[in-house]
Amino acid sequence: MSRDWQPDFEQLVDEHQSMVFSLAFRMTGDRGLAEEIAQDVFLELDRYLGRIESPEHALNWLRRVTMNRSADALRRQRVRGMNLWVEMDENHGAIFEERSSPLGSRLAGLLATLPSPQRAALVLRYQEGLTPEEIAAALESPLATVKSNLQRGLKLLRAKAESRLKEYIRGN
Amino acid sequence: MDDIERELRQGLLRLPAPPGLKRKIMARKQARDAEATHRRVVFWQRLAASIVLCSAVGGAVTWHNVDERRKGEAAREQVMVALRIAGRALDQMNAQLAEHNDGK
Questions:
Q1: N or C, fewer C-beta in 10 Å, chain A?
Q2: 0.90 cut: is pTM over it?
Q3: Model confidence over A110-119: pLDDT tens digits?
Q4: ipTM over 0.90
Q5: Which residue in A51, A48, A56, A71 sits closest to A16, CA to CA?
Q6: Residue of B nearest to A10 (CA)
Q7: CB–CB of B7 and A104 under 8 A?
Q8: What residue of B is the nearest CA neighbor of A157?
Q9: For chain B, how many structural domains are there in total?
């Protein structure tokens, strides 16, 4: 692998802050927490920068660490007895409405109600466009587990959409 | 890809990062770097102070030992001089006693 590439921290922040924040926000459902996670992830990247070998390595590293940090944050919140997504369930879609179709927005909102492993797999699949193999690498999970989470997540989401978004399904 | 997957892909577009996120990251990085530099400086200062202190204590102990040895040597020298003087006096007294006995 070429070592000609020299990582530039500020440029990496510029390029990936949207991706890191979006992943953290879709996993936790809390803008403040997502911003905090994004800051922590980039500060960790700064410490790890000497070992980053290529732009792809940086991107994959950021995805993996963001998902880990988000999972840790969710775990900590569960231990404290809080559920970050409770309030997000109803108004989560509002944030997306300017940029996507109404059904897409509501589906993004419904995604919040899925168990976190399924949500993680679906977010990486449909926000980042990763293949199941890449998702398995990012989540450090077996491929079979990722495929199962993707299938179950989609099935659950479809069932929820049919029962809760009938007006949109009919409208489309 | 079915409809729900297509809609999901549209619904899950990346969000713009909050305004000021980069500024906050850079500020935290700068603060952390400054803190690390400060810690490094304090570490080297403490190390230097420790070396100076150890050198001073070691020097004092060595000087004390050398001084003690020097004083001991001086005292031994004085005793030897005293013994030499006493020996010489005794020799003279012996010589006088011998002359006195011979005269009788």
A1: N
A2: no
A3: 888 899 899 9
A4: no
A5: A56
A6: B26
A7: yes
A8: B4
A9: 1
